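Page 47, continued from p. 46.
Same chain as before, 94 aa.
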Amino acid sequence: MLLANKKADKTLLDILNFVVFNPLANNNPIEVLCRKLIAKLNEQIQLAAEKDYTPMQHKWLISIDGKINLVVRYGSKPLEFAKGKNAIELASEV
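Result:
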């Protein structure tokens, strides 16, 4: 039984598309704070405009080429799934 579960886990990991996650190249503290402020202001605008809007924190990031990457973190560090690959590329947000 345990051996069958291990085989199932391996096939699930083989299905996933692991990619390299590159954080934003510009880590200037002032620009990081500006990006956070802009995101919070946009959230406040949506809260004021739509009664049914609920703020959410997304666990995925959109890469430069427009693909969605899921990054799993332990504390502040992204976990590596395979050698040098620390993100899972998703087909869509849903």
